[in-house]
Every structure is written in structure tokens, then in C-alpha cells.
Write a structure and sequence with these properties.
Length: about 200
């Protein structure tokens, strides 16, 4: 009788432990976290984003509507970080963290927004719609990104090209779209500042 009680208790503890372990098991994210980092000139550029898949869907024009600012990723906001001041679209912005939004268009170049508050695009929702004026108000800078159509990219991907090691070319590619914008890391200005100290 004692053995039966011991056997029963052992089985119960085993089952409870198994259920607890199973409850902690996580499935892979549908939009896995990703990041890309590159030093260009004296500046480290880092982008943290989530990488959703196309999975046979029509993304731009259907899921992400034309003319509506989009978070340029999935899950949390896409964050770009600069270790030094940089120039984007002819405007100098300070070192720090910013979020990237993109406004897709049916034709022509898309608008890239560098948000100074590093907010989620959903922070700009009013009555179920993005308040585009509020987004624009919090842009550190916005510019037209060179938009290429064609090709096929299953998972949303960001790349940073060091090019001439002065100007970074940052690209977002997904579905059949690639949007690229330059970031001038102001190497020449930084060298002049360094020289002037001696």
C-alpha cells in the first residue's frame, strides 16, 4: 500500500513538472527579431527590427495601405541608432535612437520618416487611423527614399552599406520593394574639427 502511494505521488509530481515545462515552451516568432550594424567613418549605425515574411500575401497596397505611414517592420517599432551626429536629407540630427517609419506609395519614391521620439507608429493612432500630421510633427527628418520595384524578398530585411566609408546607404527590402536612403556620417567635418583642436 505504501508503494502504491509513493508511486502515485511520483507520477503526480512528474506530470505536474511536465505540464509546467510544456507551459514554458515558446514557439518561434512569426516575425523574428533581427538587427544589423555597421561602422561607417567614425559612426556606428545599428538597426533593430522584426522580420515578417510575405507568406504568399500581397503586402503593399493591401496589408500595408498606400499613403498610410507604416512601422517599417513588425511587432515593436524599428529602431535606428547613431553613435555620432549624422546628416540625413541635408539635416544634421544628433547621436541617439530614432524610429523608422515609411509611407508606401503606389508609384514614385516612398517617404522615410526618422522619428525623434523613437515612438511606435501606433502612438499616433486617432480613431483607428494614423494621424499623419502628428507623425510629421515628430519627424527629426523625412525624405524620399529611392524606391525600386521588382525582385522578391520573402523576409523583411534591412542592410547598411559602408560604400565610400563616409555615406551609409540604408535599405529596407520586402516583398517586391526596396527603399534606400543615404546617411552622411560627416567624416570630413569631424576630421576638420579634430584638426582644429591642434
Amino acid at each position: 500500500m505504501k508503494n502504491n502511494k509513493f508511486y502515485f505521488l511520483a507520477c503526480a509530481f512528474f506530470l505536474i513538472g511536465s505540464f509546467s515545462a510544456f507551459a514554458q515552451l515558446q514557439t518561434p516568432s512569426l516575425s523574428p527579431a533581427s538587427s544589423v550594424s555597421q561602422v561607417v567613418g567614425f559612426t556606428k549605425i545599428n538597426i533593430d527590427y522584426s522580420s515578417p515574411g510575405v507568406k504568399g500575401r500581397k503586402i503593399f497596397g493591401e496589408i500595408e495601405k498606400y499613403g498610410v505611414t507604416w512601422r517599417a517592420g513588425a511587432n515593436a517599432q524599428t529602431i535606428i541608432e547613431f553613435s555620432t551626429p549624422v546628416s540625413i536629407g541635408g539635416k544634421t540630427i544628433g547621436a541617439g535612437r530614432y524610429s523608422i517609419f515609411i509611407t508606401p506609395l503606389e508609384s514614385g519614391d516612398w517617404t522615410v520618416h526618422i522619428n525623434k521620439k523613437a515612438e511606435s507608429v501606433f502612438a499616433y493612432m486617432v480613431d483607428g487611423k494614423i494621424d499623419e500630421a502628428a507623425v510629421a510633427k515628430d519627424d527629426a527628418v523625412s525624405l524620399k527614399g529611392k524606391t525600386e520595384r521588382g525582385g522578391s524578398t520573402e523576409r523583411l530585411t534591412y542592410t547598411i552599406s559602408a560604400g565610400d566609408n563616409k555615406t551609409a546607404m540604408i535599405s529596407m527590402a520586402w516583398e517586391n520593394i526596396k527603399v534606400t536612403f543615404p546617411v552622411d556620417t560627416q567624416v570630413d567635418q569631424k576630421l576638420e574639427q579634430f584638426k582644429s583642436q591642434f
